[in-house]
Input
Amino acid sequence: MPTEPRTPPSPTDQPADASTPTPTPTPTAQARATQSAGKARRLRTEADKLEAFCVVVRAASSAADHAAFAEVSRAASKALQAKFGGGTITSVFAWLTSSAGKDALDSVLAGEVELSGSLSVEQIVEAVALAQKAELLRATQG
Output
């Protein structure tokens, strides 16, 4: 009776063995995953802050007079207190023009994090430009 040569079974032909341990990530891989998750959270937080602050800038810049600006300022202070634990229109403008604000904008522009609010990227860029102009004026007049 002729016999055919036997080929050893491939590992994929084997049934899964529940006792076979699954490989665990190395500590370096775990550290990288933790860093990536941390970076993603930080980028998300900064993008949310960028958007919220740009909403404040847009509202402040559209105020028709001092009374309207004061109302925007009061509303912004309440919203900033609720969402970020505090803040003023002045601190919003200062943050947007700081290196932290620039980094947040750069992350959005580079596509590292997406906007989740109602403003478009163009509206964010315009609001940051308004904040820069206002800070420049404040610095030269203050």
About this structure: Residues 80 and 104 are 18 Å apart (CA to CA).
